Amino acid sequence: MKSTVAGFVRRISPFVGLLAVGVMIGGSGCQKKAPPASDTAAPAQAPASSTPAEAPKEDKVAVTVNGSPIMESQVQRYLDLEYKPLLAKYAAQAPQLAAQQEKVFRENITQNLITRQLLEEQAKLAGIQVTPEELTAEMTTQLSSLNPPRTIEEYKKAVEEQGGDFDGIKRILTDRLKYHKLFESKFASTTKPTEADAKKYYDENTKEFQVPEQVRASHILIRPTDPNTDPNQAKAQAKAKAEDLLKKVKGGADFATVAKENSDCPSKAQGGDLGLFTRDKMVKPFADAAFAMKVGEISGLVESPFGYHIIKVTEHHDPNQTMFEKAKTEIIGQLTEQKMQEAIDTYVKSLRQSAKIVFPSGPAAPAPQPASPKIAVPADANAKK
Fold first, then answer.
1. Three-class SS state of 22
2. What confidence tens digit (pLDDT) does each residue in 323-375 have?
């Protein structure tokens, strides 16, 4: 459930720049494990408590934007919402590092709140609002895209069970929708790339559209799992079971049914189907076997660190180049996003330059610089359906 909460929050806050939480993904029993993300790359590993840290006895002005104050308590509230779990971890392990990181996080949040205040002013001038119906529709769309899909009530329950602030997330999503409307009203007509733009990008970046060799396979995994058995004996038992299942599928038993009833991999729910994958996504013994097989072939026993596999290859795709016509829609969409982001960056920069931003202790600090989006095309763009 944790990954559900984290994944949704990440999706709903691209403009606000808050709640960038990490997503924990469980892999199948043959995929290589991804290296853990660094703490600084994923600043919050779980939703923060809905109860903010106790506000200072004397709430002070952190910064004034065009005469409107942003209070220290507001900064603290967002600091708690985004970084409280990580800072608590730092405080327990390295108090000095926690103090340094808190200072950096606080400065970033203050800059984000300055931008938010300027966008609020512009949205108000333009008469832009978000209705409850629009908020519900957006939440429903975002949650339905999760795997597995979630309803709003299911998501709310998940957030609250982890001590998260569901109403805070709704406020952030409302802001995101409001600013999206503002940007669309100003830039939608000027940020649409042409097909010629897409073709130019394609021609200049042909390597991005090279599709490596891919295989689609199903497997049955038998792990030596009994903790009360001698490891060698457990391994022998697992191998004996795998050999028995191999005889069944070689003898004509339905592979998917045998996988559902016996496999120790989560893919059993799909009859052992792992989907399309490239060689580098799987552990070497599994990849070597799968990529050497013909479509429809069933392997012998393949031993890996996970246990014993029986593999059935269902598709094989040679390396190829994604043609422009297939990549065009994706490229145009990404170029549109890139042009829109560039327009937003310029717009926000101009708002900040013309605004009166006053810090009690000195002049305004420079705004954080956003990273440019990258264009990517799915690796299976040419896969047969």
1. coil
2. 999 999 999 999 999 999 999 999 999 999 999 999 987 554 444 444 433 33
358 and 305: one domain?
no
- Please provide residue 315's backbone torsions phi and psi, each rounded to the nearest 5 degrees: -150, 150
In angstroms, the Cα distances linking 104 to 308, 363, 371 are 48, 17, 18
Same structural domain, 279 and 350: no
In this structure, the answer to whether residues 309 and 230 fall within a common structural domain is yes
What's the rounded Cα separation, in Å, for the pair 67 and 11? Answer: 32
* Pairing between β-strand 298-304 and β-strand 210-211 as defined by DSSP bridges: unpaired
- Could you count the other beta carbons within 10 Å of the beta carbon of residue 357? 19
- Residues 24 and 145 reside in one and the same domain: yes
Give the distance, in angstroms, between the CA of residue 191 and the centroid of all CA atoms in the same chain. 25
Looking at the fold, whether 161 and 81 belong to one and the same domain comes out as yes
pLDDT (0 to 100) of residue 48 = 37
Considering only CA atoms, give the Rg of the chain: 26
What percent of the chain is helix, strand and coil (3-state, nearest 5)?
50, 15, 35
Q: Does 38 lie in the same domain as 156?
A: yes
- What's the predicted TM-score (pTM) here? 0.59
Domain that holds residue 94: 2-190
Q: Which residues, including other chains, have CB under 8 Å from residue 13's CB and lie 6 or more apart?
A: 19, 20, 172, 173, 176
